Amino acid sequence: MPSSRTRLIAGNWKMNNDVPAAKELAEALVEKVPAGNGVEVVICPPTIDLACTSHKIADSAIKLGAQNVYWEEKGAYTGETSCSMLKSVNAEYCIIGHSERRDYFKETDADENKKAKALIAAGITPIFCCGESLETREAGEHVAFVTAQIRAGLEGVAVESADQLVIAYEPIWAIGTGKTATAADAQEVCGAIRATLVEIFGEELASGIRVLYGGSAKPENIAGFLAEEDVDGALVGGASLKADDFAAMVEKAGE
Ligand code: PEP
Predict the structure, then answer these.
(1) C-beta of 235 in contact with ligand 1 (< 6 A)
(2) How far is the CA of 226 from the centre of ligand 1 (A)?
(3) Within a domain: 216
(4) For residue 98, what is the domain's CATH number?
């Protein structure tokens, strides 16, 4: 990884932790996650926990991310959360396009595209997830599938500086299953993602955009992924719920 890209470790809590549990985990993370080791750290709690988590991490180097957003500014959209609402709790990042949202909530590339545009316009960095199913991988179509998701999701998205966008490659078959891609599998797709970013945004911008790996990443395997040229960090699900494991991953990313 060229030194120009700061490694990023982002925790996706998914639908875990009510308010008391979120406060407890945030406190433990503030205590245990190493600061000043050159790694950027983001945690993405459920929407209900954003405000209390923001308060708990306010004096730390840990940054806040959301797990979802709606692209309209305000109005009759029951149950949704706008960019300005995320800004009001100091969220700096927002996960979009996660396979769970695409699969269970039928979100499309067009939806992710609108979310990406709204977030960037609001000054929040999308963590744009992409990834293939086992069936697609076994058919040997994973690179074409993922790069098509990138092209469709980012069509017409105006990125002016590399810190306005993060990509997370998460093979669906490796999420929450304990099955990980090999570091070489991750590099194959992350490299293809970067080449696609070069086509879309040009070499200079694309070389600064962080591309993360996600899918059963844990303290024992993270170093292997991070050793790859185009893997700049990790999006972490299960292991982000344990302060010791998450802190250990941040520590390894700083080595
Ligand atoms: C995720 O869903 O973003 C994820 C990477 O989950 P896990 O680490 O639990 O596989």
Answers:
(1) yes
(2) 16
(3) yes
(4) 3.20.20.70
